[in-house]
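Worked Example 4.2. Read the sequence first, then its structure tokens.
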Amino acid sequence: MTDVSEAEFDACAARLGIEVPADLKGGVLRGYQGLRAMAELLRGVRLVDPGHRGAEGDAG
């Protein structure tokens, strides 16, 4: 999982001109960390040819 620091989040939000209220920052930071981790996982996904069949020729 990607370890996103609060400083990195602050820099990203500032670069985009987004002001996150202090009382919401913790939750928004956790959501940002989750999205970064998900994006990292999706980059590692290898797509399989939809016509691919199992080793024994079955669809499954």
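Now turn to a second chain, presented in exactly the same format:
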Amino acid sequence: MALATYDRTRYVAEFSISGCKMTKIARGNRSFSSLELHPSDSFLTAMSES
């Protein structure tokens, strides 16, 4: 998982290295500013809506 930026839009994306594929996980009229791995193997992000 990573934050991806395209055309002034930032969203959460998942990348498949073996298939060279990117999947958008969270997007829309939102701005994501950080993405961190939580100890329970889940992710935590900071988000604001516009």
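Notes for the reader: Strands lie at 2-6, 9-16, 21-26, 30-37, 43-49. The chain has a mean pLDDT of 86.
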